[in-house]
Amino acid sequence: MRLHTLYNEYIRHKFHLPPEPTHGDMIMAFGQYEDDSAALFFNDHPEETFLGWIVRLRPKDPYYGSKPDWKPVLAETFEQLNVYDEMILYYLLFTINSTLSINTHNTYSEMNDVMKKYSFLQLSHLHDITCLNASQKQSLRDFFFFIYLYAHPVNDETLYACTFDQQRLIHTNTGIPLEYYFVAYYNHYTTHRDEHAEHIVISADEIQACKALTLELLQVIEGRSPKLIIPSIKSLEPAIQLINDVDGMLKLYKDDPAAFCQIIRDLLALGVAAEGASVNSRSYRDYCFTVLLQNYASYILFFDFNEIRVLIDAFQDTPMECRFIISKMFTDTIFLNKIIRQQEIDLNEYPEVTRFFNEQATEWFL
Q1: What is the residue-wise DSSP string for 236-249?
Q2: Residue 56 CB neighbour total at 10 angstroms
Q3: What is the pLDDT of residues 242-258, one digit of tens each?
């Protein structure tokens, strides 16, 4: 599979942007449900999805009922694996494979979706950033990976199940690299497909295509893949350029913070001008606005919260804009909440910030 092509299609499908020509050799393509959610469907088996078929192979829950008396499916390949480990590894596989799903949400789950997909995008960018040192990038990698799992959401056992060994995710309890486990998982069901015919309708080649896509998704998380980029559209080019080039954003902010803030101001002005525009163009503009503000929180405030005063200084003469920007940055995700708690920041020392909180931000933070 070609993840970067699929990711471009995912963004375009999610925000109803004009499609680009598709490659004829793609095994899967996005299809839409009646409720406007969407998934990757197999072209030759249009009733089946990339995520759906593994759900029917979900391991029995070892926590339910009497003490488990069965072995994991891959027990012969990984002797150290028990049924509890198998369940966690299934949850991890499901979490990764659902990254490209498009769901309909209530307010709470919409925030989770924003955080998971944002963290996935940033995990693809970290290894290319030169403005941060290795320690800073490792801190952000751990932060984004935690949020990626937390926002799915997963249970505590799954949330803390893995550790990084350089650029490899390892299942801590067994020492099994996720890559090795997923390869063995897909190969097992390719070899034993006929034994599971009631659950598996796709072909062996399609199972192997799923393996390739899962590994590409995993490599993004591990930082072993070229960075993902979001599609550019003319009116949003300055903001999207910064989103797609974190180094460029950091350099611009360092050299000319006023120019950085002007891009935020222009993006906000586009939102006002777009009141009569289509829902689709507004939603992508809003998405880019959210990503740019969360980039400011993640790459700048994460390392020096005092930099928020630069943003305040730039917008304090337009209080309504300042209130909207600050409140949005604090409430679109839990990133700043987590940063403030981790770093034991006392917001009472930042009255120039909190005076611009809206009701929701005030309720969350004060």
Answers
A1: GHHHHHHHH-HHHH
A2: 12
A3: 999 999 999 999 999 99
